[in-house]
């Protein structure tokens, strides 16, 4: 009754579980490397479906207008719909599947707990303990996802020069990264950029750091800071 009363949430729960399943079989290619590549695409397509459903839930009345598009781009679900489209037809990159896997795992775990609560307050204690441990590490997981989002930017550039990526991919991914940086619901991308800057500045200000490396790092920090969008 609980599942039928929440059909859209249940559909997203199933698609997230399928995303976790496909992502796991890509990361751990138990069925062979050829099959792993197909699971990579399935995971991203399932994530795109979940993101589209979540976006529909957040903005149910679609309008073909600039204002609606601007509102949609503020939603995290729109960001990860774009993310899935960026990588679904690209060369499989293990780093790109971790955000999809971990976000799906976190959201699926939250809804699984609701399903267990609807069934019985004491049902499946072993599964409940696993879900509690996952929830306790949520902040670390979100930081790891943000770290993946950041380091995928140079990875897309490397893929371009190695012949495994398209010319447009780094530019489209840069747009995705600016959306994540400006996210209203998830500040971890901004937080990680700040923390990485503090760590790098601390290291390069040590006397043992070569002057040319210090200048290079300071120039890079200045360049990246100029590219960062303004956050309201």
From TrEMBL:
GO terms for biological process: endoplasmic reticulum tubular network organization; membrane organization. The chain crosses the membrane at residues 12-33, 80-106, 150-174. One of its GO terms (cellular component) is endoplasmic reticulum. It is found in: Membrane. The keyword DNA-binding does not apply. The keyword rRNA-binding does not apply. It is a multi-pass membrane protein. Pfam families: TMEM33_Pom33. InterPro entries: PER33/POM33_regulator (IPR051645), TMEM33/Pom33 (IPR005344). Keywords: Membrane, Transmembrane, Transmembrane helix. Belongs to the PER33/POM33 family. This is TMM33 protein. It comes from Pedionomus torquatus (Plains-wanderer).
């Amino acid at each position: 009754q609980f599942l039928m009363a929440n059909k859209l949430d249940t559909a997203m729960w199933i698609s997230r579980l399928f995303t976790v399943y496909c992502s796991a079989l890509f990361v751990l290619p138990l069925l062979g490397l050829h099959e792993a590549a197909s699971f990579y695409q399935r995971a991203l397509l399932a994530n795109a479906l979940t993101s589209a459903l979540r976006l529909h839930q957040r903005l149910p009345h679609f309008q073909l207008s600039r204002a609606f598009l601007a509102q949609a781009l503020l939603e995290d679900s729109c960001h990860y719909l774009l993310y899935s489209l960026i990588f679904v037809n690209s060369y499989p990159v293990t780093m790109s599947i971790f955000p999809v896997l971990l976000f799906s795992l976190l959201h699926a775990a939250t809804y699984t707990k609701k399903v267990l609560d609807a069934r019985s307050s004491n049902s499946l204690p072993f599964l409940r303990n696993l879900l509690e441990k996952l929830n306790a590490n949520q902040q670390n997981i979100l930081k790891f996802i943000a770290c993946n989002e950041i380091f995928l930017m140079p990875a897309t550039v490397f893929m371009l020069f190695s012949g495994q990526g398209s010319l447009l991919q780094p530019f489209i991914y840069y747009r995705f990264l600016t959306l994540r940086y400006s996210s209203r619901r998830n500040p971890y991308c901004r937080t990680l950029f700040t923390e990485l800057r503090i760590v790098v500045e601390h290291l390069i200000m040590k006397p043992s750091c070569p002057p040319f490396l210090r200048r290079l790092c300071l120039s890079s920090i200045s360049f990246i800071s100029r590219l960062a969008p303004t956050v309201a």
